[in-house]
Amino acid sequence: MSTIRASDLLSESVAPIAKVIQQTLGVNAELAEATSIEITMLFAHLWGGQVVYVPKGVCIQASKLHQKIFDDWTGRNHHEVATKHGVSVQHVYAVVKRMRLAIIARDQHDLFAPPEEEELP
C-alpha cells in the first residue's frame, strides 16, 4: 500500500482537477486552475487533519455505464449494446429492467400511497 503525504495529495490534485474543469466546462486554463485550487483548498478545509479513505468511485462508474447502456438500447439491439460496452446480453437485460423501474418510480405516482399533507403558510 502506497502512502502519500497530505501536501503532495493536495498539490498533485490541482492539475488533474483543472484539466477536468477545462474539458468539461470549456473554460480557459487560468480559470480552470484557479477553480481547481479553490476546490482543493475546500477539500483541505473540510477533511484536513482527518484520516480519510477515498473510494474508487465504482458506483458512479457503474451508474454512468448503466445510463450509456440504457441510452444505446432501442428495444431490439441487446446483442449490439452488449458488444459495444463489453458486457453480457444478460447484463444488458438487467440494466434495462433496473433503469425502466427507476424511471417508472420517478415518473408515476403510487395510487395507494397515503396522501401527502400540504404545508400551510
UniProtKB/TrEMBL annotation:
<feature type="domain" description="Mor transcription activator">
    <location>
        <begin position="5"/>
        <end position="111"/>
    </location>
</feature>
<protein>
    <submittedName>
        <fullName>Mor transcription activator family protein</fullName>
    </submittedName>
</protein>
<dbReference type="InterPro" id="IPR014875">
    <property type="entry name" value="Mor_transcription_activator"/>
</dbReference>
<dbReference type="Pfam" id="PF08765">
    <property type="entry name" value="Mor"/>
</dbReference>
<dbReference type="InterPro" id="IPR052411">
    <property type="entry name" value="c-mor_Regulatory_Protein"/>
</dbReference>
<dbReference type="InterPro" id="IPR009057">
    <property type="entry name" value="Homeodomain-like_sf"/>
</dbReference>
